[in-house]
Amino acid sequence: MTRTDRIAALHAAARERILVLDGAWGVMIQRRALSEADFRGERFADRPLPQKGNNDTLILTRPDIVADLHDLYYASGADISETNTFSSTTIAQADYGLEDAVHDLNVEGARIAREVADRWTEKEPHKPRFVAGAIGPTNRTLSISPDVNDPGYRAVSYDEVYAAYSQQARALHQGGVDLFLIETVFDTLNCKAAIKAILDLEDEGYEPLPLWISGTITDRSGRTLSGQTAEAFWNSVRHAKPFAVGFNCALGADLMRPHVAELARVADTLVAAYPNAGLPNAMGQYDEQPHETAHFIEEWAQSGLVNIVGGCCGTTPEHIACVAASVAGVAPRTVPERPTALRLSGLEPFEAAA
Fold this sequence. Notes:
- By secondary structure, the protein is an alpha/beta fold.
- The protein has helices at about 5-15, 25-30, 35-40, 60, 65-75, 90-95, 100-125, 160-175, 190-200, 230-235, 255-265, 290-300, 315-325, and strands at about 20, 80, 130-135, 180-185, 210-215, 245-250, 270-275, 310, 340-345, 350-354.
- The longest helix is centred in the first third of the chain and has 22 residues, at about 100-125.
- The protein starts with a helix and ends with a strand.
């Protein structure tokens, strides 16, 4: 299949059924009990900073592990698997001194995922597999000062964030992803920099790809870290005409439900959600069992709230298998037709009817 064919198949599949995304990568990598040497490989053997825990480097140092995890999630029933590139920007990799490796991380991360997805599509042509280019939020925020004594201070500029996302998006596209996933958005201004970076690729002659935007509600306040409600967040990003919008991370499915329901009410596009396996315990571990996560998500599906589901922190292939089984045969959410109106947002939404 060409990429054009795959994108058409993605849209067709989304009309027919609830699609399933993969689960967490961090928990699965932790299970491998890898050493510093695994993260360094030959390429980064002489780098002065510690690399253990920099999961993205495994794309270049242990590609066998990355390919195996894609394989496990596709085998569990996932339609879409993310590239292992959540932190593959120059801003995030600066913590490890690996800014010079960012292009290769994204190209190779996409290439590995593409190869595994294509094998599954060849084996099960009735269920094509897709690759989402994972674009994380970076570890810098454009909307909030890191210095409580200087509210106007920013540790990074918009132009720097835009440049980092441009490099990442370009490399993911070159590697063969089917769609972009801007995920775990805690700062909508960071997200806007990523959106612009992706849309600007068309001016360079790159084929436009579907765009999925996933925010994160940081706590029970019902707001993102930069202060927006679910509807305000949607009003801020709807101009990008995303393929899908939704939430991931921070909350378990029980606490995420009202925010998913709010997006399902207002978003005239697909709604996607992939929660954590509950909230972490005192040791930072996730205790929610696969059938428990699936139970919550099945209720979302039965209530007509979602088009795409999956798992975030603490979820495993076993969780995804249960989730996939729970939504099989359930009709996807019907995308509503919203009346024409002027819709704006600050921290709260504003709507003025036409």
